[in-house]
Specification:
single chain, alpha+beta, nicotinate phosphoribosyltransferase, seven-stranded antiparallel sheet, elongated, binds 2-acetamido-2-deoxy-beta-D-glucopyranose, DUF5598, EC 2.4.2.12, secreted
Length: about 500
């Protein structure tokens, strides 16, 4: 019934969002009056700006646009009722008449409420070096030049699924490196990082987007909202898996003197399949030595690889606690050596560390484990906040900027270049993305890119989604290649000084 309750809240959360009037989702309400006279096209783009000298997150995973398009932008999104509601709303909000009622009515009359906009984007799941164009937006009818940036607020929110998918994939690189080094294979990699973040995110919609973004890289989650998003918006019937897991309430409600009974009950209730039992309610070390390793030892040994007991420490220094726990388990249950000469607990016994996990600690823990001779096979990780919430739009410096306009039928490249921060400069002109002859992915500016080389695909035009991706395709695009297990050279170096004829190729470095 707790599951059911979660489900009910989820539906309520999503409902609240969809009942909000679409027209009230923008701050850009007065901009239509601010462009120069006779503008007929506004062309803007999204990128994760590259920071000079920054080395973290040098490549990003593009994910999440399809949800925004399906949910908010496709079909007949403008109606007379919405126009009336927005008119009243903004009259109250600005205390003057600034809402462009006439402009919106024209969308209704000319296009039956469908948006005359074209969006070109990198295929979802693609790995793109930071600092490149990821999608572009333009109006397809000169009357609606003001629409391009009207939808900015919504589109810039793409920072969130992109950042989560990118961070989740960085976890995967670290896990792959250690797993390969200490076991000789990548078996089980997709289950190494479990998403514990549902309760730690700011809203149901964030949970859905962030949870789905993690599922681009892994198959292990408790964030049910993400599974629903993968199902409803990315065509995946069941994108992730979980197991019965104890939490402190289900252990301590037995009373301090009956922790053994609480543990035993977990084994009774879930005799087959993996089961995870949080074991630090009182003393994790005593629990491992005296309960798991002694009183319930026979019950644990009875279990199989497919039904293993996964012990969960949940406090203390993650690396130190984990190493002490694994040593106690070795004393009680023994261990064997794998093909790489690293120690592995019996296959019916594993550990999951879900406390204090982030990109740094996971690397440190696995480093220390391998220093002590232990394979990464012995542990799973769970991550909440560091995966879904401890990030913001600056984590990847996400921005949406105008780079080209047409005035009186004449095109003009535009840009910003603030003297106070060159890294906030923007790209110029019509943009395309290509893989050059050195296999580097780069943005070609000023409209000189060849259409046949362009990696950007039209995904949305005049109210219709024209290209869709399934989670399966996205996962394939985001796959970890073997080269990532060694430090990658890919697009990490600043480009060598450019020949004059290459000056339009900026690759995010200005
Ligand atoms: C705008 O276009 C109109 C009609 O073509 C023209 O008469 C007018 O001079 C233009 N205004 C500006 C400021 O370019
Ligand atoms: C979208 O609308 C514009 C303006 O009406 C039109 O020129 C263009 O051909 C349309 N695109 C498609 C794919 O129908």
């Amino acid at each position: 019934s707790r599951r059911n309750m979660k489900f009910t809240f989820l539906i309520m959360g999503l409902h609240l969002i969809s009942s909000l009037t679409w027209l009230i989702m923008s701050l850009i309400i007065t901009h239509y009056k601010q462009y120069p006279p006779n503008v007929s096209k506004v062309y803007s783009y999204f990128e994760c700006r590259r920071k000079r000298g920054g080395t973290q997150f040098s490549e990003i995973v593009f994910f999440g646009l399809q949800y925004l398009l399906k949910k908010y932008l496709s079909g007949r999104v403008i109606t007379e009722e919405k126009i009336q509601e927005a008119k009243v709303f903004y009259q109250m909000h600005f205390r003057q008449t600034v809402f462009d009622e006439e402009g919106w009515r024209k969308v209704l009359e000319k296009y039956d409420g469908r948006l005359p906009i074209r969006i070109k984007a990198v295929p979802e799941g693609k790995i793109i070096p930071r600092g490149n164009v990821l999608f572009t937006v333009e109006n397809t009818d000169p009357d609606f030049f003001w629409l391009t940036n009207y939808i900015e607020t919504m589109l810039v929110q793409m920072w969130y699924p992109i950042s989560v998918a990118t961070i989740s994939r960085e976890f995967k690189k670290i896990l792959a490196k250690h797993l390969k080094a200490t076991s000789g294979s990548l078996e089980g990699l997709d289950f190494k990082l479990h998403d514990f973040g549902y309760r730690g995110v700011s809203s149901q919609e964030s949970a859905a987007l962030g949870g789905a973004a993690h599922l681009v890289n892994f198959c292990s989650t408790d964030t049910v909202a993400g599974l629903l998003m993968a199902q409803r918006y990315y065509g995946c019937p069941m994108a992730g898996f979980s197991m019965p897991a104890a939490e402190h309430s289900t252990i301590i409600s037995w009373g301090r003197s009956r922790e053994k009974e609480a543990f035993e009950s977990m084994l009774d209730q879930f005799p087959t399949g993996p089961v995870s039992v949080v074991s630090d309610s009182y003393d994790i070390f005593k629990a491992c030595r005296h309960i798991w390793g002694d009183k319930l030892k026979e019950r644990v040994i009875e279990r199989s690889e497919d039904s293993c007991l996964i012990i969960r420490p949940d406090s203390g220094d993650p690396a130190e606690t984990l190493i002490e726990v694994i040593k106690i388990l070795e004393e009680c249950f023994g261990c064997s050596l794998n093909s790489q000469g690293f120690k592995v607990l019996p296959s019916y016994l594993r550990i999951i560390q879900g406390d204090g996990i982030d990109l740094n600690s996971v690397d440190e823990i696995l480093e220390k484990l391998s220093d002590e001779g232990w394979s990464a096979e012995n542990v799973f990780f769970g991550c909440g906040s560091a995966l879904l919430q401890k990030l913001n739009r600056d984590t990847l410096n996400c921005a949406f900027k105008c780079s080209y306009v047409e005035i009186n039928g004449k095109g003009m490249d535009v840009y910003k270049q603030p003297v106070t921060d060159p890294s906030k400069g923007s790209k110029r002109g019509l943009l395309s993305l290509r893989r050059n002859s050195d296999d580097f992915i780069e943005t070609v500016e000023r409209g000189v890119g060849k259409p046949e080389e362009d990696m950007l695909v039209i995904v949305f035009e005049n109210g219709s989604i024209v290209q869709e991706y399934t989670l399966e395709e996205i996962r394939k695009n985001a796959r970890l290649l073997e080269d990532y297990m060694a430090p990658s050279q890919h697009n990490q170096d600043e480009p060598k000084s450019l020949e004059p004829h290459q000056k339009h190729i900026m690759n995010g470095v200005h």
